[in-house]
From TrEMBL:
It holds the Pfam family Abhydrolase_6. InterPro entries: AB_hydrolase_1, AB_hydrolase_fold, Sec-Metab_Biosynth_Hydrolase. GO terms for molecular function: hydrolase activity. Keywords: Hydrolase. Residues 6-219 form the AB hydrolase-1 domain. This is Alpha/beta fold hydrolase. PANTHER family: AB HYDROLASE-1 DOMAIN-CONTAINING PROTEIN-RELATED (PTHR37017), ESTERASE_LIPASE_THIOESTERASE DOMAIN-CONTAINING PROTEIN (PTHR37017:SF11).
Length: 228
């Protein structure tokens, strides 16, 4: 049996360094792990960056996406190397859907992400509200660093629509972060149910992949074990 490679895809406003805790745990368990530094300028560009890493995979891969990274893996996951998908508090769009369409009609009372108006085609989160909205379970100092080191998110990435969602043809797992204030947990559950994902729930903010790497690594390991 071949142990699949784990490929981690980050979301908007952040870079791949947030996966460090998950990376360490998986490496310690003997997995080969790659972190995609997707530029988050456009969906097409991020899919291309992810497929470049998948092209280098020697054998099967488990493709993992956080937040907007879920859109990327839904499109890139049709790559023949991918044997399973893992969504971490992530968007899981269907054919023709994008981040924009998925957030267009929030339920009454749902928290509104503090996204500032676009400047020169890029989006950022309000630094003063970053801690509460994105990383409520992280220490204030760590959340402040994440707020100050934000990666501008291209508006073209939000409008990028998925052509052929990989979750329709490949098994998927989903970790719901029950304290998420960026993607409401009910929306996470609905997307996971639609995708037929194996679902795990854990207390955590949108930054659960940083705050609770053990919970995230456990779901990834579950997927990797199932498809070995």
């Amino acid at each position: 049996m071949t142990t699949p490679r784990i490929v981690l895809v980050h979301g908007g406003f952040v870079d791949g360094s947030g996966w460090q805790g998950v990376h360490t745990l998986l490496k310690n368990d003997g997995y080969d792990v790659a972190v995609v530094q997707n530029p988050t300028l456009s969906l097409a560009g991020d899919v291309a960056a992810t497929r470049q890493v998948l092209d280098a995979a020697d054998g099967p891969a488990v493709l993992v996406g956080h937040s907007y990274g879920g859109v990327v893996i839904s499109e890139a996951g049709t790559h023949p190397a991918v044997s399973a998908l893992v969504y971490i508090a992530a968007f899981a769009p269907d054919k023709g859907e994008s981040v924009n369409t998925l957030i267009a009609d929030p339920p009454p009372g749902a928290p509104v992400p503090p996204i500032l108006p676009p400047r020169d085609g890029f989006l950022l989160l309000d630094r003063e509200k970053f801690h509460a909205s994105f990383a409520g379970d992280l220490p204030a100092e760590q959340a402040a660093f994440m707020a100050d080191s934000q990666v501008p998110w291209g508006v073209d990435a939000l409008s990028g629509a998925v052509a052929e969602p990989a979750w329709r043809i490949k098994p998927s797992w989903y970790l719901v972060a029950t304290d998420d204030r960026m993607i409401p947990p009910p929306a996470q559950r609905a997307m996971a149910e639609r995708a037929g994902s194996t679902v795990t729930e854990t207390p955590g903010s949108h930054a659960v992949y940083v705050s609770d790497p053990a919970a995230v690594a456990a779901v990834i390991t579950q997927a990797a074990t199932a498809v070995r």
